[in-house]
Amino acid sequence: VVTAEHAIDSLIEAARWMSARGLLPATSGNLSARLSETHAVITASGVDKGSLRPQDFIVLELHEPPRPGTSAETPLHLRLYRDDADVGAVLHGHSMVSTLMSQRGEREGGLRLHGYELQKAFAGVGTHDVTVEVPVVPNGQDVEALAGIVATRLASRASGVVHAPCYLLAGHGFYGWGRTVADARRHVEALDFLLGCELEKARMRP
Amino acid sequence: VVTAEHAIDSLIEAARWMSARGLLPATSGNLSARLSETHAVITASGVDKGSLRPQDFIVLELHEPPRPGTSAETPLHLRLYRDDADVGAVLHGHSMVSTLMSQRGEREGGLRLHGYELQKAFAGVGTHDVTVEVPVVPNGQDVEALAGIVATRLASRASGVVHAPCYLLAGHGFYGWGRTVADARRHVEALDFLLGCELEKARMRP
Amino acid sequence: VVTAEHAIDSLIEAARWMSARGLLPATSGNLSARLSETHAVITASGVDKGSLRPQDFIVLELHEPPRPGTSAETPLHLRLYRDDADVGAVLHGHSMVSTLMSQRGEREGGLRLHGYELQKAFAGVGTHDVTVEVPVVPNGQDVEALAGIVATRLASRASGVVHAPCYLLAGHGFYGWGRTVADARRHVEALDFLLGCELEKARMRP
Amino acid sequence: VVTAEHAIDSLIEAARWMSARGLLPATSGNLSARLSETHAVITASGVDKGSLRPQDFIVLELHEPPRPGTSAETPLHLRLYRDDADVGAVLHGHSMVSTLMSQRGEREGGLRLHGYELQKAFAGVGTHDVTVEVPVVPNGQDVEALAGIVATRLASRASGVVHAPCYLLAGHGFYGWGRTVADARRHVEALDFLLGCELEKARMRP
User: D121 — contact with chain C (CB < 8 Å)?
Assistant: First the structure.
């Protein structure tokens, strides 16, 4: 159990960092943290994420429908908390890198990373010499339905690959999570770095 | 009716943000906000937009010719306020992204965006699954004539597309607007992100 | 006549801005300002340009050989002040953009810009519809000889083009100048923006 | 002999600068400085390098196996100090530029730089007209073995080239060093600039 004050402080700081990095453009994105087995806090809809205040957060009951005022994307957060008790924080943003790479990976349903030392920033990955997959799901405006599609995709892992603790919605952005806000932030930073490397490779002459 | 003090404070903050993002290079760009049905405030010509002070603004009468000391581009602001009572603020800047993409879109008279979640940052756009057009007009140094050409272009919308609340002058930069300074700023940020994605696609191998 | 204190303050602020923009990497670059018909101040060699102090400047006699402790590149500054009484400040830096574009323009002896509104940031340019040339000179370690080669190149202007108030040394960086430090800084910012646009065009698919 | 307090202050400041430049993503990287012929200080494992405190450093005995709590990469630091008494500081980070360029240079065992004025930022290089080689070594998770492979590679210099005071691990990042923390930082900044130029050339149309 985490106090709401501590969770909110961590999320405000993570949002400031994400905003400065261009991961939350035009008031987009949302951030949440688990408080207990049954509750979490999430950012309110439509506010500028670079300068959040404690009153910009809403308490969620994890096993109830989202309350009014929460972001339309709340069901995607709820599903991650419900399906995995180890998820303690979820960060959603829209970098250019994740927008572009998600569109490149949409047809294959995922992007594969291999040979990068920074893969080790993902919890559970101990070497550059493993293939890490970032699942990609088509975007949709029916968010309850989308949450189900995402859950199905996350549960289906190809043999010989490890899933990164994150996924992409095509043309939309990334969801990343971890046991703590600090872990989720490290995962999001590594994801943006590694997808940025892949984007650069798509630019270079062979 | 908005007080001049409040409008100026919002514009100073928006200019600081635009300047830090590289949208106002080399003292370029200008920002304005509507005060009433008949008046607006606009930045004076030639000052560094990253550190504006209240004395760097000039009050405009919307239905009179521009006063001395205002930017040469003032007629482009005036025309937007005159033609649409819902325009409450206009932000003009020169990012590299808008300069380059405007040149790519000049022959077609516009750039089309489709499939991006961030399109929803534009007022009136509720889904990624619609085509949003950003009108592009050739640049010109006769600004009164240019204002008329822009107005004609904005009034002409192809079927099946929605216009973004912004346009580009080729090789020059962007104009973006909204009901409030905050809305205009969100539109400008989304425009720069989305044009940046399109520019990246022009760089990548297919 | 400008007081040394005022000139140094302006250069410290310009260096901080250039450093934050990546124009002075690895203690490179140097900045100077004219004090009178016979004297100027210039940054000392080898110091970090992001945090200059008044004691990091040296007074130069414009018509004498450079004093010990001044940068090896001092003759390039002196020559500009001697050849044009309107030169009041000279800023030299090493952006990636100017390094790369200077190598692309070396064989032709210059880079030509056309159709950009931001060309108007250069003193004496009033329209996007003119061709502006940025002279490019091969790099060399004999700086006295190099100063003469630069002067000859600057004096030779092709018909139908305007020279920008700046030049590039191939694989090295840019020199930009103006009547005041503020003018020189505006020229350097516009140069980096416009060369950045040209570099992007070299990246894009046609 | 350098006091531990002074060495740690310099490393904290260097880490803040590297972090702001994106050279230490996702808590990666490590920094060290020599205290004497027999001792050095190094950053502890897993902490955020943008906000280091004095208690985040560990004293190393240069000729002993690494102590518990030190980074897994400590043997790579130790080997540099043992093999060259002039090495006073070692900075290791993971920029996107060095990750990508190291993969491009892996097969050849190095990257060659020529014709850049900024090469002169490397100690011992006095002209753009020399070929500077940055050695590249395949990555590995057995760090003691890797330290030996690196040492062998550094000792083998092709004729006609100068080695930069740095090397790359493929898909991993850079190691840079110097007599002082300031020298090592200048070398790392120049390396990132020059590899960035080479990466841009791989993007451009010929």
Answer: yes
